[in-house]
Design the sequence.
């Protein structure tokens, strides 16, 4: 990528305009004109540096439940199980990690019943020895953005937070935004046509959702490996002041996700940090610094050794 493309990429991850002509609004900040910005983003999508363009929704704000599952799976059955998971909409992320608990995946579901059914289905799959449900207690940060202009941010969201359900017209806008974002001069007008409403309404609602946290961020989601972040490790912690550490780790740019989760009798860790680095040396340097902060903590590093599924959740598929 050239310098201008790198700058554009850093901006469009978390600071994409929600206005009638968003690409024109970016022109003054990048040195590119409106069409050049559209063409550049289209190119970044075609070469797969940009995976998805559009909103990242907070599932709890939409009335959905989510959790993290750690499973111990016979290595000979991992590929078969992963293939089955590809067909389950509610399983959005699935990783092979360097641990006895080798399969880590997320479930986002419309109800607890659907979630429990998926957990039970995985638990009964041949070769699965153990399935641990690790529900969220507090979210300190969800901000997988990369680059000099990315915002670290600090989010505090608890499992008992109450949210107002979306009405049917709002659900239609969510469904429209889940489609490929239109790379043209008036993209929100296209979204509005799909959702049977008007452009101004879509713009107003998206901005409201960004302000109230229904949309975590609006913009590009990148393939971090294709832009140079080859070292990716989930680090878990136990003991000490979990809440204080969570807030401190959330302020680190290389930490994309930071959660407190309910400990399990077979997995007593509470704080989860996802760290991205450009090399193993950089990763070791980051781990050294945060280990000093959490001096005396029990910790395990779970290196990512395989990405088996990474998709965006599709909400309100039932109309």
Sequence:
């Amino acid at each position: 990528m050239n310098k201008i493309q790198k700058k554009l990429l850093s901006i469009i991850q978390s600071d994409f305009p929600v206005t009638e002509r968003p690409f024109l609004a970016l022109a003054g900040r990048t040195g590119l004109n409106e069409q050049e910005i559209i063409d550049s983003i289209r190119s970044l999508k075609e070469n797969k540096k940009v995976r998805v363009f559009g909103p990242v929704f907070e599932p709890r704000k939409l009335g959905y439940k989510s959790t993290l599952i750690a499973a111990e799976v016979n290595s000979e059955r991992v590929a078969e199980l992963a293939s089955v998971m590809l067909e389950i909409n509610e399983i959005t992320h699935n990783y092979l990690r360097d641990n006895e608990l080798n399969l880590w995946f997320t479930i986002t579901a419309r109800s607890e019943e659907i979630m429990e059914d998926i957990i039970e289905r995985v638990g009964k799959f041949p070769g699965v020895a153990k399935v641990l449900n690790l529900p969220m207690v507090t979210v300190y940060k969800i901000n997988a953005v990369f680059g000099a202009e990315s915002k670290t941010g600090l989010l505090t969201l608890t499992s008992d937070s109450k949210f107002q359900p979306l009405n049917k017209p709002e659900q239609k806008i969510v469904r429209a935004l889940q489609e490929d974002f239109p790379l043209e001069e008036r993209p929100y007008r296209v979204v509005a046509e799909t959702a049977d409403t008007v452009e101004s309404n879509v713009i107003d609602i998206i901005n409201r959702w960004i302000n109230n946290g229904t949309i975590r961020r609006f913009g590009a989601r990148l393939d971090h490996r294709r832009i140079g972040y080859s070292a990716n490790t989930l680090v878990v912690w136990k003991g000490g002041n979990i809440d204080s550490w969570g807030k401190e780790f959330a302020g680190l740019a290389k930490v994309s996700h930071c959660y407190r989760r309910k400990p399990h009798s077979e997995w007593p860790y509470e704080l989860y940090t996802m760290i991205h680095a450009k090399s193993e040396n950089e990763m070791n340097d980051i781990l050294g610094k945060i280990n000093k902060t959490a001096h005396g903590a029990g910790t395990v590093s779970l290196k990512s050794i395989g990405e088996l599924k990474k998709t965006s959740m599709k909400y309100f598929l039932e109309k």
User: Anything to note?
Assistant: The chain has ten helices and twelve strands. Residues 148-154 have pLDDT under 50 and may be disordered. The radius of gyration is 20 Å.
